[in-house]
Write a structure and sequence with these properties.
About 75% of the residues lie in helices and about 0% in strands. The chain is built from 11 helices and 2 strands. It has a two-stranded antiparallel ribbon. The chain is globular. The N and C termini lie far apart (about 55 Å).
Length: about 290
Amino acid sequence: MSYFLNLVFAGLAVGALYGLLAMGYAIIFKVSRVVNFAQGEIMMLIAYMAYSVALRTDGSALLVVLAVLVSSVAVGFLIERFVVRPMLGQPVFSLVMMTIALAILIRSVAALIWGNYPYRFPGAETVQPFVIAGVYIQPLQMVLLAVYGAICVAVWAFLRFNIVGIAMRATASDATVSMLMGVSVTRLYRTAWVVSALIAGIAGILFANINHIGPDMAHIGIRAFPATILGGLDSVIGSAVAGLIIGVVESLTGGYVAATYKEIAGFVVILFVLMIRPYGLFGQRNIERV
């Protein structure tokens, strides 16, 4: 039983990271109907920027957090302004290919600047895990889960009660009507990319402190993508919850089946779920009159 609980907790910790990235996927898709396949690379880039700041400030936590916030906003804004906005009005396939090209570009630039080797994040403390009911828990894993919960609540409140969040939901329903009502769709696109980059940056800095920082961080974006599909591409909170499901499934698969099957476990789950609910567990069915 202790072994099972340890696998579940480890899966929840990884799933929280997936859930954060999945929220970033869903926020952009909800507003613009674009799947951003550069989400993992954006997380990696912001983490590297924070790493550079940490090297020069002896790992000052306050300055590193400030660097994450500033670099996330800057990266999200620049990508939306100079990469996404010129592509508006183009076929969705072109936009998706653009995000793939952006992912390759970011990965190449990061390799040129920081190299291809993993690093230990400066100031990351090696704290002994504590045990509760036979479950080994790292303090930073608890921090990750707490941040995950706080961001879920903040994003839900933002979409539910904030005027910008309500406008984003309206635009997702019908962008043309929203424009006729005076909503600046371009500004909402920018907000979506900035918020998505901010969540990715927070996820990246947490992962870097728990594990390491390196080019392999970018692959987490692809491993988190099944959570977005499972939860529903148009459901931000649903994608976050699905991240926990995918994380636990991967952990149990690695523990009871084989570690080599962990990476495909999430895709197997969505394969079965989509045969029953093509729009995801929490997504909305789209009905079109023809």
